[in-house]
Amino acid sequence: MQLALSAEDAEFRDEMREFFTTEIPQEIRDAVRDQRELTKDHLVTSMRILNEHGLAVPNWPVEWGGRDWSPLRRHIWHEEMQRAFVPAPLAFNATMIGPVIAQFGSQELKQRFLPATANLDIWWSQGFSEPDAGSDLASLRTTAVRDGDEYVVNGQKTWTTLGQYGDWIFMLVRTDPEAKKQAGISMLLIDMTSPGVEVRPIELIDGGHEVNEVWFTDVRVPLDNLVGEENRAWDYAKFLLGNERVGVAPVGATKRLLAQAKEWAGPLLEDPLLAARVAELENELLALELTALRVVAHSADGKPHPASSVLKLKGTELQQAVTELVVDLAGPASLASGAGDDSDLPWWTRRSTPVYLNFRKASIYGGSNEVQRQIIARTILGL
Ligand SMILES: Cc1cc2nc3c(=O)[nH]c(=O)nc-3n(C[C@H](O)[C@H](O)[C@H](O)COP(=O)(O)OP(=O)(O)OC[C@H]3O[C@@H](n4cnc5c(N)ncnc54)[C@H](O)[C@@H]3O)c2cc1C
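That is the input. Now the predicted structure with flavin-adenine dinucleotide docked in place:
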């Protein structure tokens, strides 16, 4: 089945394809293709090129660099970017804090932060989760207490992705300990070079350094760095997490990996069982893609659709299923992840197990898949 594009949309697709395959340095696209860990420089360079051409934050309001595209065009932009192995704009900036500041921030915050956020002059980190507040985020305990024209912040955040690169962190903090859980939470923007902020690495099962703990000890934050109103951040967080879930349904990237897997499989694809497994994954990905288009089309006023939970759930399940397929294709060579680049084994077989292990995270972050099932049951199925 093909999605038939109008002549104008097909032209738009060709423009995007041309842009992504010619303007983003080959070295960066090769790193994405070969599933290597991207450097900070890769991500900054790529996002700045996108921003220079008005392609970094099309989801934002037009006055702040967004594009008034149809949902289909936004989908095409995203698909073509993934197809060309271009790293997506940094999610913390482009799909998380940027839209929140644009929607709920003061004019002063918008002017101060939005241009630098779109251009990745500021690298944002997400400071939501705590050791005892993940799925049950509203039980977070990091406090911010007013002292003159500042807040004083104390507590610990965890799983802070790429916090080692972070310039600023958007935080959920408790400003009213007396209020009902959700009602006492505010959002603060904190400069990570402030005295009292300490980033400690967490080593992951694939050996990479992707996440961190961030500690706050008497960190002084100007009152001006509050987003929106005090104690209203639960609404802002729900808005942000809805956007995050749509963003973590990686249809294009999973399609791309599946296409690579078919190439790697070669003659193995003649095996009927393997062919059926691949065909089923392709069908499910197509169904997910159509669902993603429907969800985007029905998101009113830029607000996330409740079905974003379906995208998160199914998208990450398929992503994990394809990484598992690649391990199976690699067979015994999948055990050779420690072999260096001078090994005779193809690079993709050596990368297959670290990539598989790394993507176990996908059913946890952005709200775990079990929690998504509960949201679907409540808000979509009415159970
Ligand atoms: C790689 C990675 C990167 C991350 N990056 C960030 C980041 O940058 N910033 C940030 O703030 N957070 C980040 N997170 C944190 C992430 O949002 C949390 O891990 C997630 O919300 C789950 O919380 P938890 O780990 O505390 O698990 P818990 O909430 O303790 O859950 C443990 C288990 O219980 C299940 N469970 C919990 N509650 C329910 C329920 N009500 N019904 C059914 N099952 C339930 C969960 O599904 C899970 O299987 C990241 C996590 C990972 C793994």
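The pocket of flavin-adenine dinucleotide is lined by residues 126-129, 134-135, 159-161, 211, 361, 364-365, 367-368, 370-371, 374 (CB under 6 Å).
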